[in-house]
Amino acid sequence: MIQGLVSVVMPCFNTARYVTEAVTSILAQTHRDFELIAIDDGSTDDTVAALQAIADPRLQIIRNSTNLGIVETLNIGVAASRGEFVARMDADDVALPQRLERQVAFLRSYPEFAAVGTGVSYMDEHGVAQRSPRLPPTSNMGLRWRLLLGNCVHHPTIMFRRSQLSLPVYSSIYPDIEDYELFLRLAAAGTLANIPERLLRMRRHGLSVSGQRHQAQLDGAAMLLHRHCAAEYGLAVTTSEFSGVLDPVSWLRPERSVGTAFAAADNPVNTVRRLRAAFAGRHPGLDRSEVTNIDDDQAFFQAKVLSAAIAASNEVSLARRLKLSLAAATACLCSPRATLRAVQQDRSRQ
Question: pLDDT tens-digit profile of 206-215?
Fold first, then answer.
């Protein structure tokens, strides 16, 4: 392990269109002591040629002989790293110049943390800015809570402390959500944080993993949360109920609500209320700011559910739309201050 060195691990698969811009954004970092490990996972386009055309000694190219998938490819990259810190990067994103510098400074200032992420801004396939997501929580307790509502840590922004990594870092049990599984582990251990700055421009397009494997990711995340909450909080929330939390519209779909477990699944607003009670019981020492942040997250979720129920297609069950709308609206009215803050936060996103 080389002190001060950052090993940037970047898996690549058919990203010839974007990879030069991604690599260039790393080469332009204000923190200059790094190696960039690009692992080509059997691309069939000109990704390798684009990488080989970049003349910089800090770029190391590894080629998988066949397509091994993201989990094994990431583990290969981490195993090849030599740095004190290991940072993730995707081959279609763009890092802001001070990203690595900010994260190294954080991990050096706070040795109790094993990993730190950052906020992101969104862009489309052409690089045009899109509406940004909410900034992720900064505290470990805030992360523990919001991770129960979905993955709030942006994988391409994460930086690890190499000394606290155990190989293999990523588990093959959840191949579509290997990052989410890792973040729940880190948060439960109290070693995950975020920097409240948007230090990465994340590209969203149909060819991304999330675009192609959306349903598989939702199903895997529901199972992961079901197991996590049973082990961490002793809470019996079904995978169907977690599917409704992760994607409230799925609770409304008639094909998933008739003759299946969805018919008996509690609505997402009630499920989150149960999660909140279990979380408060497990962590009785929450301070005022943490409680306020959790209130805001719950209100933001309720407002999102209400909007989804109102906007849902007429093809979904009308009875379930009305039931969900009423539950969400009632919850919003019961917490007016938090709801107002949530609406203001939503409007403030660029």
Answer: 655 555 577 8
